[in-house]
Input
Amino acid sequence: MELLIAFMLKHVFIADDTLGRRFGRVAYGLAVCLLLLLVGCGAAEPPAQVREMVSTALFRFSFHDPEVLGEYPGVEIPQGKQLLQVWLTIENTSDQTYTMFAEDFQIQWGPGGDDFGTCLLDMGTDTLPDDYSLKPGYSRQGTMLFLIPNECTTVTLAYQETRASGKPGNAYFVEIPL
Output
């Protein structure tokens, strides 16, 4: 990338040419830089929808049957919040067993830095356990419970891959209307 930038600086901006040709080269150079930036970063895909199967490098998942609940055994719903129950189906498509965590999926409801949360843990037999093994070819299904602000009409559930190096990989989003 540094080589490309040095080439562009030398041949686009410093070239001894007429002003018109230089302007054309600058426009062309900027277009190439923009294209490389988009290819390098990857264009964001639109979020998936409820019941749509999302494929990651290691598994497939879908969220379905979202429902705002008035109550749930063992959960006290604070003032200003509502309780959202969503079913998760997840299937291991790799050839290795993985430990999954209920908190691998995050809920988001706004653009702010505090507009997100994770599911409530240890909530009963229908909910996903805090952690579980997912063998190759096997799937798991369970509910996830989230406390979200009352004013929410749409939320997004997100999963962020982590590469073996520890760096973030692709992010996946599912939009859920309430």
Remarks:
- The first strand starts at residue 48 and ends at 49.
- The chain is about 20% helix and 40% strand.
- The mean pLDDT is 81.
